[in-house]
Amino acid sequence: MSTVDDNPAERRFELPIDGSHEIAAVYYRLQGERLTLTRTIVPERFSGQGIGSKLARGVFELLRASGRKAVLRCPFMAAYYARHPEYADVVDTSAE
User: Fold this and answer.
1) Which positions carry the signal peptide feature in this UniProt record (predicted)?
2) Count: domains in the chain
């Protein structure tokens, strides 16, 4: 089972997709200790398989572990957060 990793050089969180050479990714802009999550990309042929949700959960868990906060500008990540308010400690709503 793959895990989500931060790739600061590409400014994205990455989730390798098992059985392929592709990744799903959440792109961000870094602003101090805050990350503005700007978009989520899951290859089309893998949509509907829960990969985006696994990616979102992994991103929020990495942010929590690092003590950083996220500003949600990506509609997918905002929708995931709306369904999972347990991540309120890592989402910065003051910037909205």
Assistant:
1) none
2) 1
Which CATH number covers residue 49?
3.40.630.30
In b/e form, how buried is each residue of 55-66, taking b as 16+ CB within 10 angstroms? bbbbbbebbeee
Judged by phi (left if over 0) then psi (alpha if -120 to 50, else beta), residue 29 lies in beta
In whole angstroms, give the CA distance from residue 21 to residue 3: 14
| Distance separating alpha carbons of residues 21 and 83, to the nearest angstrom | 30
The gap from C-alpha 14 to its chain's centroid, in whole angstroms, comes to: 8
> Is residue 96 scored above 60 in pLDDT?
no
Examine residue 96 and state whether it is found in any structural domain, yes or no: no
Q: Is 67 left (phi over 0), alpha (psi -120 to 50) or beta?
A: left
